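dumping this here before i forget
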Amino acid sequence: MPINLNAPLAWEHANSDEIAMLKDLQGNILKGHGRNYTQNLFFTLDAQKPQEGRGFLRVLAQSVKSAYQQLLDAKAYRMSRQDAGVFVSVVLSAAGYKALGIADDKVPADPAFRSGLKQRKDILSDPEIDDWDPGFQDEIHGMILVGGANEAQVREVHTKIQQQKPASVRIIGTEYGLAMRNINGDGIEHFGYVDGRSQPLMLQEDIEREKTEKDGIDIWDPTFPLKQVLVSCPGGASADLSFGSYFVFRKLEQNVKGFKDREEEIAEQLGLKGDDEELAGAMIVGRFEDGTPVVLQREDGLIKPVRNNFDFRNDSGGNKCPFHGHIRKTNPRGDSTALGATLEQERSHIMARRGITYGTRNAEIDAEGKIIELKDKPVGGVGLLFMAYQSNFENQFEFTQVSWANNPNFVQPSTGIDPVIGQGAGSLTPQQQPVDWGSTTKKPIDFHGFVTMKGGEYFFSPCISFLKSL
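structure:
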């Protein structure tokens, strides 16, 4: 029976075909792997020795965690806190498929994927390639993601991979991820804000937990179909049951000092003092640091759980959460309908984000390792390893970056770019900031340039049967 890609999947009640699909699908696509320590190992292959590269990936496939096993592990962890061990996945670039000697009809067809991220640089307003980190400037053929509950687990797998690989497979770069959590246990990024709260949910069990254990789904429904991320995997064991997903990786460096200093300057320009000063940053990000959506109230405190069941219909003028607010730019929650788009069209652009922070900070932490306060303000060396799955690069990642984040006229003329991830000439258009929460009076401000793209690539996450067949 064909898999219904037009709806989410109830995996605990899956039929035999759905289970077969999940066993052939790599983990982390339908649900994040949940590990706090990661390594991203970027590698190249020798096109003159494709059989060695194929053999390496065939062996590596034995360690790749399937979606089905990941879900079983996650369920066991919820019930008994049993450590599920390491997580391993592997993705390939279009150049990697070529180096392996894969026939053209077995190479994923997405045009942006086949071009590669470097060729899309101008479309995305990315920095010049000479300004990328050295490990990303050259051709990358694939990436291995290793995740674990602790650093030792991850190092052990890294060592094993190094021992298994032939000399023709070279690890050309490694990025280390370390999840950060605030005192409430919520994931945060280096500017100090709760991150990753709003995600497309494609498993019925996750949707039910969102509905009953968190703040509900009656205003903003996070239910998305499998087709949001899944596409047929060319070269898989079954035309009907083998699926993969397009995967984007971008290293985003954060200038924390510059961002925080600018927050303070904006607060002063707006006349915000004392406890109200945090409102300046909240209107830039769209949430207060604890995750409280600024559209719901002018102060923080709406936590446990962090709210996600909201939209912007009661803020049609952008007077509470400005149109340039980062979370509004990257998930407009219905704003696009004012421009003639349907809600379904708008939702089609949403990606499944799986990023993790990198770099260490001087921080005060509690006994459980949660961050009470971030002490230092680095100008570099810290940031986000942005990763996301999707079914179409142009319609999802590129649309979000170009038509929303980089577009100074979305959702209204002279809105300004996304002050967090916006790039390009649009940065010359000041953001239009309410002078106070709910005010119809706007003041032009200039807030950009504190996140720098340091390199990345477009990949495809193939089905496990493809890897085993190499």
